[in-house]
Amino acid sequence: MDAHTLDKLEFDQIRRILAREAQSALGRGLAMKIAPSRSLSQVQGWRTQVNQFERFVTARGFPPFGGIRDVRDMVKRAVPPAKLEPREFAELSETLTAIESIRRYFAVLDDQYDLIKKLAARLGDFRVVTERIDLVVDNRGLVRDDASERLWRIRRQVEDVVQRTRDVFDRLLRSASVTRLLQYANATFHADRMVLPLKADQRGRIAGIVHRSSDSGQTLFVEPAEAVELNNTRVNLLLEEQDEISRILWELTHLVHLNQQDILRTLDAAAVVDLLTAKVKLGRRYKMCLPEINDGHRMLLRQARNPILLELFETLAADGQPRNVVPIDVRLGDDFDIMVITGPNTGGKTAALKTVGLLVLMAQSGLPIPAAEGSTMPVLDGIWIDVGDEQSLEQSLSTFSAHMARILDIVQRARKQTLVLLDELGAGTDPDEGAAIGRAIIDHLLSAGCLAMVTTHLGALKTIGYQTQRVDNASVQFDVESLRPMYELRIGEPGNSNAIAIASRLGMPKALVQSARKHLAGQQRALNRAIAGTLRSRREAERARRDADQARQEAARATLAAMDQAKALEDRQRMYAAWVERILRLQPGDEVYVRKFDTTGRVVRVRFEKQVAYVNLGTLEVEVPLVDVVFPNQDLRET
């Protein structure tokens, strides 16, 4: 898909909406990079992956993401002789520990979730790494005293020297003969050395080293002679401490470096898990579905809604301005390939075009779409769109010329397995010539074998749907009373411009309205009468099609429900057989979960004749019915 199409259909907005559903920076970053694929197998794979994840989440709840950060840049920098900082190690440990929780969350995956199982297998086990980090760095990002024996010894020596130095200063500050020489009776620090604030006019009255004077020159900062050696010792110990910390951090950095590729692979997999979480959350938020992906070029959208409008109206509703998105039904590639949408310039036609284009992009990006079950989509090689004001001042092109330049480029690209979306075809020039150009372009698109939706307000283009096979008319309903589009798309019914009716509602004198109706071309009036005469039969045909589709959908749902029930029964029988086998092999010392006490314990003995096991919970021994015994990593649904 070219950048122009993604821009005009506002696909970046979909990325942002999806990213807001992610639980971590890893998922948000990946959500902002999603893009549609032209590969049928990849799109089908994405769909299956989301479907499996949604089913797993329904059974287990969403995975835990607390504590996960995007530490990939940090891990990439873990290349000796460089070393990471303690705070960075704390963040890495917290992230890897959180990912371990996700690994445990996926521990009960079985073969019905094969794609999720494959993804979960990419989550590495880094407990050895986190345990080593946690021995060195605490959760505040500070190096622990006991990170090494040498560091422990150095810090105890520092504490001892610091205390002895304080004792010296405390003794001096208790002496009245000393404090009267000071600007204030407190010690302070110069660099890493404790000093006294001596009055400048008392210079030399306290033996020691003058390190500096205040900006005003009124105070000299003096290190007393009896504290010099203690301060020297303290400074040297602090240097030793930093050397030891550097050595420890270098070793940790080397450990991360040895596991660098596995950690990065795990972080990438965690990002995908979060992206799947965002997709499922988005689908549930707006009642979306996963459309069927077909290998032809048939498109059927049931009750399709624009996701950008859904978010906008959700915001308005929160502000006390409730509005509803009007769903539309769209089909292409079935009984016709090109839809010509006619009617007034009120925005409804363009909204229909953008909704369809956007849902195609979402489906080919592995996202659920805001449409009803039973929707099906092809995988297209490209979507080409001309919509909105394409005028280019830089190229000195008129609006018409700019549109034509884009349309001609689209015409050259159009082929089978592409979707063309043209807004207001033939506008911006003489209506007769515009209609002629529009007819020629539609004929070319038909011969190219592409799918297309074309909007126009030119009445002359309405006849194409009646005269040409694989082309049909449609219209977006318009309320003449309120002068607002109704947004409901009706297939098989061309729309009227309603210009005279609109002018009348806006206050045009009746005499002018009547005159305008007289001046309306006889051929146009005849066409309108002919269209009106076919509407009833066409509406009945569309209603019959909808009823038949609905019946097929209900039959399919009933069949799937029966299959699901049979599969559920089979799964329960299989899980029960596995549980019985484990119960028969239950031995003293085995670990089990006692649901009543919400804790694990060790089996002491088993009494099969009484159907009970005695379990040691640490502080007490309890009798547990065998039917209540749950094994570690056992899906609680099995019991």
In brief:
With 639 residues, this protein is α/β, with parallel strands linked by helices. 50% of the residues lie in helices and 16% in strands. Helix 18 packs antiparallel against helix 19 (510-519).
Topology of this structure?
Elements lengths: L2 H6 L2 H9 L5 H7 L8 H21 L11 H5 L9 H20 L8 H7 L6 H10 L12 H25 L2 H4 L8 E3 L2 E7 L8 E6 L5 E6 H34 L1 H26 L6 E3 L4 E6 L2 H12 L9 E5 L5 E5 L5 H16 L12 E3 L3 E5 L12 H15 L4 E5 L8 H18 L2 E6 L7 H4 L3 E9 L4 E8 L7 H7 L4 H10 L2 H63 L6 E4 L4 E9 L4 E5 L4 E5 L3 E2 L9
Parallel strand pairs: 5-9, 8-12, 8-13, 10-11, 11-12
Antiparallel strand pairs: 1-2, 2-4, 3-4, 6-7, 13-14, 15-16, 15-19, 16-17, 17-18
Helix pairs in contact: 2-3, 3-12, 4-12, 6-8, 8-11, 9-11, 18-19
Which keywords apply here?
50% helix, 5-stranded antiparallel β-sheet, alpha/beta, 639 residues, 6-stranded mixed β-sheet
Descriptive notes:
By secondary structure, the chain is an alpha/beta fold. The protein is built from 20 helices and 19 strands. The strands form 5 sheets. It has a 6-stranded mixed β-sheet, with helices on both faces. The chain has a 5-stranded antiparallel β-sheet with strand order 18-17-16-15-19, with no helix packed on it. The two termini are 49 Å apart. Mean pLDDT is 87; it is low at 390-396.
Distance between the termini: 49 Å
The share of residues in helices is 40-55%
Biggest sheet character: 6 strands, mixed
Mean pLDDT: 87
Q: In what order do the strands lie side by side in the largest sheet?
A: 10-11-12-8-13-14
Low-pLDDT stretches are 390-396
- Specify Rg, calculated over alpha carbons: 38 Å
Number of helices: 20
Number of strands: 19
* Alpha-beta classification: alpha/beta
Beta-strand share of residues: 15-25%
Q: What is the 3D form? A: flat
